[in-house]
Specification:
Length: 389
Amino acid sequence: MKTENHNKAGKLTQLIHGGIDGDERTGAVNVPIYQTSTYRQIELGKNTGYEYSRTGNPTREALEKLAAELEKGRFGLAFASGMAAITAVLTLFQTGDKILISNNVYGGTFRVLDKVFNHFGINYEMIDTTDRQVIETAVQAANVKALYIETPANPLMTVTDIQMNAEIAHKYGKLLIVDNTFLTPYLQRPIEHGADIVIHSATKYLGGHSDLIAGLVVVNDEKLAERLYFIQNSTGGVLQPFDSFLLIRGIKTLGVRMERHQENAIVIAEWLANHSGVKNVYYPGLKGDPGYEVQKKQADGPGAMISFELTDDKNVARFFQGLELVGLAESLGGVESIICHPSSMTHAAIPADIRERVGITDNLIRLSVGIEDVKDIISDLDSAINYAG
Ligand SMILES: Cc1ncc(COP(=O)(O)O)c(C=O)c1O
């Protein structure tokens, strides 16, 4: 597809033909895997545009271009993991700076700020990024340099208004960083709502098959992009050529997968909400969920991540034992349904008192709804809830 047509194409077409479409030299329909660390130079001081694969690799570049297009940004960067992407973004800041983070960001994001960046004097403060007054008060401090949000946020599926956060951040000259892992650009494009930096754990829905670890960053501003490319090359957490290829391959089917993930999730969330063994269901696709309206305004769908709590008479450990089809595992966004216990797994890095304050109870269960037959997922969950007491 010609570059000028990329932005006019539909979402499904862009996923398949966006970025660099195939290989011009041979006509191969897929971007080749340039599995090389270095490139022979033409003559002293003259190269082909590539010198060394930490600095640039054609397979990674095809992915980076695709990511930028899908997120409606101008520049994309691919990293060895979501955490490597987050770390690269956080190294934009300096000693004395403070980042405001949403109450329930991913545990690893909290951990890297709390246990790594604090060694360098970069601080964080957890705030309720759904509350305009709270943000407006916190963001005005001179040392605050950025707001960092996830929406829906992990694991209570709290929806944050991206546009509201962008407006407040920009009013005081701060950056808005959005982790868009849960919805992907197929369902939500934060740059369209004013975000400055979009981050992904591409390990999840973008890869889609639980077979790779990868991270992405997309920005619009050229100066920010230059700094991030400098950081990427200097610190070296780049995505490898084979993994870049796998990710491009995964992204081609993102649309059909997301549609099916979401179709299943809506049925399962409604079923859970009506189950006598379940007391709370957190899913922004349910009418009555506090995030329902904002989610509808800023996204093309609620996604397929659901959290819920069993009633107090149920034993959570027995519930997990009772599952057969749905796997107890970290991660999310693969074709298979995966379930986890946030307080002892994904969010264990967050101290118990903070977990309690933000509502991550020991009773909370997080489900990544796969694309299996929905009746099979429901039947497995039902048996496990019954087994739990
Ligand atoms: C929302 C979110 N952001 C970032 C990450 C970190 O990504 P990775 O595991 O690819 O390093 C995760 C991982 O679970 C996540 O769920």
